C-alpha cells in the first residue's frame, strides 16, 4: 500500500515539474518564485492596482504572455 502511495506521489510530482517547465518555456520567463507571502502592491499599465503575494510574482507577471506591465507601488497590499 505504501508503495502505491509513493508511486502516485512521484507521478504527480513529475507531472507538475513537467508542466512548470512547459509554462516557463512558453512565456519566455526563467523566474521560479517561492510561495513566501510578503505582499506588494503593483500598478498595471492600465493604471489598475493589483496585490501580488511577493515581488517575484510581480516580476513574473511582467514576463508572461499578458500584455500588462506592472510597476511596484509599495510593499504591502493595495
What does this structure look like?
It is a single chain. The protein is of the alpha+beta class. It has 2 domains: 1-30; 32-78, Wheat Germ Agglutinin (Isolectin 2), domain 1 (2-Layer Sandwich), CATH 3.30.60. It has 2 helices and 3 strands; from the N terminus they run H-E-E-H-E. The chain has helices at residues 2-27, 55-62; strands at residues 40-43, 49-52, 71-75. The protein has a 3-stranded antiparallel beta sheet with strand order 2-1-3. The longest helix has 26 residues, at 2-27. 8% of the residues are buried.
How are the SSEs placed, and which strands pair?
Blueprint: H1 2-27, E1 40-43, E2 49-52, H2 55-62, E3 71-75
Antiparallel strand pairs: 1-2, 1-3
Pfam families: Kazal_2
Signal peptide: 1-17
Keywords: Signal
Q: Record the strand order, biggest sheet.
A: 2-1-3
- What is the CATH level 1 assignment of the largest domain? Alpha Beta
Question: What order do the helices and strands follow?
Answer: HEEHE
At CATH level 2, the architecture of the largest domain is 2-Layer Sandwich
Low-confidence stretches: 14-26
* SS strand fraction: 15-25%
Count of folded domains? 2
Tell me the major beta sheet.
Answer: 3 strands, antiparallel
Share of residues in helices: 40-55%
Q: Would you report the number of β strands?
A: 3
Overall mean pLDDT stands at: 75
